[in-house]
Write a structure and sequence with these properties.
Blueprint (H helix, E strand, L loop, with lengths): L6 H18 L3 H7 L4 H9 L18 H14 L1 H21 L2 H12 L5 E4 L15 E5 L2 E12 L6 E7 L9 E7 L5 E6 L10 E12 L3 E2 L5 H37 L1 E2 L2 E2 L4 H29 L5 H26 L10 H8 L9 H15 L1
Parallel strand pairs: 1-4
Antiparallel strand pairs: 2-3, 3-7, 4-5, 5-8, 6-7, 9-10
């Protein structure tokens, strides 16, 4: 058992850290206040290979491991969680669904464009009445000869109004419930396919979150992704890996908040000494950094098992649950340590505080993670 990162991984970590500070940091204030994705960043992410992280080189990807992926997401999210989420959704969800279930022709046509950064990708599962209960979706695709006719609405879709390629889940056999759902590849410009309302959010504001609307969209039969009626099963497999990425995102939020709080505590003087000398502050920092290491170990374990091709519903749920809830605690404590300053936009901790909550909701709420873990534990013991 090796707990050390390789030289290549340490170099990757440093490269991403430098990139985030140089290219992402200057864009944060404007993109957060306007609630708008900085388009210039898409090209810069692509140039560094960050839009094809876990995709094989034959499809223009980097072919990195999931542990490498977690390292990347932590370093990006430590600077701006909004960018971390966009990278995670593009890689783990849309691109990886094509990577794992696409035909060679589909991968050549669509995955290459995604991995090379020609466009961002979106992944559409959630609906207004189908959140935690994803199988309750109402979007419907009916076979009409050489195409499918797709109707419905999706909600809270990351990159929704920006993406040119989108993987969409829809009911193809209502009588079969969750075993009657299929996945499809859609392209921007298909008649009847358009973004709807763009959400004005509490946090992760630079990440585009939109409705997607489908009105009699003719989807070519060749754009069925995976087998008919097996889309839900595929989506759940994709979410296992996606939860590892949200754990990596949450590590970055927690680390960013804790490091900012530590720096401030060593510089802020009250009662003629740095507040870092006070036990109340030291205990918050001690607990935070201990839990950060624990979250990192859980996340690296899940990433390692994913790299080995193992099924990881329990491990990915544990990593996401612990890391995401830590991000909320750590950022809350960081605001407390900075006190009045922590409540202002002059310091980064207020943004970490707002951004942190997404981790406990996206790709399965904390309650769903606990349910997954409980079901696995009950069946194993």
């Amino acid at each position: 058992m090796d707990f050390l990162l390789s030289e290549d991984q340490l170099s990757l970590k440093e490269t991403i850290r430098h990139f985030a500070q140089k290219e992402i940091q200057p864009l944060i204030k404007e993109s957060d206040e306007k609630g708008k994705w900085p388009d210039v960043l898409t090209k810069k992410l692509a140039e560094l290979g960050l839009l094809g992280i876990i995709i094989p080189p034959e499809y223009s990807g980097c072919g990195y491991s999931y542990i490498d992926y977690v390292i990347i997401l932590e370093e990006i999210s430590k600077v701006d969680p909004s960018v971390g989420l966009v990278v995670a959704a593009h890689n783990s969800l849309c691109s990886n669904h094509l990577n794992l279930f696409g035909t060679p022709d589909q991968k050549k046509k669509y995955l290459t464009r995604l991995a090379s950064g020609q466009t961002l990708g979106a992944w559409a599962l959630t609906e207004s009445g189908a959140g935690s209960d994803a199988a309750a979706m109402k979007s419907r695709a009916e076979r009409k000869g050489d195409h499918w006719l797709l109707n419905g609405t999706k909600l809270f879709i990351t990159n929704g109004s920006l993406a040119e390629i989108c993987v969409v889940m829809a009911v193809t056999d209502p009588a079969k419930g969750r075993n009657g759902i299929s996945a499809f590849i859609l392209e921007k410009g298909m008649p009847g396919f358009r973004p709807g309302k763009k959400e004005d959010k509490l946090g992760i504001r630079a990440s585009d979150t939109s409705e997607l609307i489908f009105e009699d969209v003719k989807v070519p039969a060749d754009n069925l992704l995976g087998k008919e009626n097996e889309g839900y099963r595929g989506a759940m497999a994709i979410l296992d890996g996606g939860r590892v990425s949200i754990a990596g995102f949450s590590l970055g939020v927690a680390a960013g908040a804790l490091e900012a709080a530590l720096k401030y505590a060593k510089e802020r003087v009250q009662f003629d000494q740095p507040i870092a000398n006070f036990q109340a502050i030291q205990w918050m920092l001690a607990d935070g950094f201990t839990e950060l290491d624990a979250a990192r170990l859980l996340t690296y374990r899940a990433a390692f098992l994913e790299d080995q091709g193992k099924k990881i519903p329990k491990e990915s749920a544990m990593a996401k649950l612990f890391a995401s809830e830590l991000a909320v605690r750590a950022s809350s404590n960081a605001v407390q340590i900075l006190a009045g300053y922590g409540f202002t936009k002059d310091y980064p901790v207020e943004k970490f505080y707002r951004d942190s909550k997404l981790g406990t909701i996206g790709e399965g709420t904390s309650e769903i993670q606990r349910w997954i873990i409980a079901q696995k534990v009950l069946s194993e013991y």
